[in-house]
Amino acid sequence: MFIVLEGLDGAGTTTQTRLLSAHLRQWGFETWTTREPSAGPFGKAARSVIEGDETLPPAGLALGFAADRIHHMFKPDGIEEMLARGVWVITDRYVLSSLAYQSAQGLDLNWLIEINRAAPTPDVTVFLDTSVRVCLERIQARGENLEDKFHQRTALLNTRRQYLHALSSGLFVGKLVTADGNGSKADVLQQILRGMAEELQTDLGVFGGMLSQPPRGLG
């Protein structure tokens, strides 16, 4: 299955990608975790812009993300090939991140949808709905500079609105699982597992029971 985790910066997508993969592996499933921007050439270029090493207008960065996404999906040993091998692919961010963050920068949502049309819809999107206050606390705890904290807060609030708008369209979502990302790592993972069990019970049959059981090894 192709599973996507989405949320604001600081929402916990990277942590929960790792924990969900580990939990599925405990039950004997082969998983492959990845992220966007990817480690490919287009992804590295996009990340250099995000980190401030290069400059590019928002529309150019949006096109870079879209190019990275298609390369990530269809390259040898990419997402499509992993899925064909029966591997569960879990990615930290996908199309909805582009729709939310880049429309929050003023780009037209319909144009963003069009440049990402070739990206396949995932089986499941997990949206970590984490408060802006908690996101900012986590970003600061990572040691990142929050000099203009008000601007950061305003930007995150705007991005959250754009996320909700994009989610409501149903595009690039698949089955939607929403989890409150404000709690502990174990609590959030349990919410994800319960939500997946509910959404996928018909498709996974007996595996729905596996997904709903408490994760092991988390305090």
Task: Give me a quick take on this structure.
This protein is 55% helix and 12% strand.
Topology:
Layout: E1 2-6, H1 13-26, E2 31-35, H2 41-50, H3 58-74, H4 79-84, E3 88-92, H5 95-104, H6 109-115, E4 124-129, H7 132-141, H8 149-169, E5 175-180, H9 185-204, H10 207-212
Parallel strand pairs: 1-3, 1-4, 2-3, 4-5
Helix run count: 10
Q: Could you give the order of the helices and strands?
A: EHEHHHEHHEHHEHH
Structure classification:
alpha/beta
Distance between the termini: 27 Å
CATH architecture: 3-Layer(aba) Sandwich
Main sheet? 5 strands, parallel
Text of the CATH class:
Alpha Beta
User: What is the global morphology?
Assistant: globular
Rounded mean pLDDT score: 91
Low-confidence stretches: none
Largest beta sheet: what is the strand line-up?
2-3-1-4-5
Number of strands: 5
Structure description:
With 219 residues, this protein is of the alpha/beta class. The protein has one domain (2-36, 87-212): 3-Layer(aba) Sandwich (Rossmann fold), CATH 3.40.50.300. It is built from 10 helices and 5 strands; from the N terminus they run βαβαααβααβααβαα. The chain has helices at 13-26, 41-50, 58-74, 79-84, 95-104, 109-115, 132-141, 149-169, 185-204, 207-212; strands at residues 2-6, 31-35, 88-92, 124-129, 175-180. Strands 2-3-1-4-5 form a 5-stranded parallel sheet. It is globular, with a radius of gyration of 17 Å.
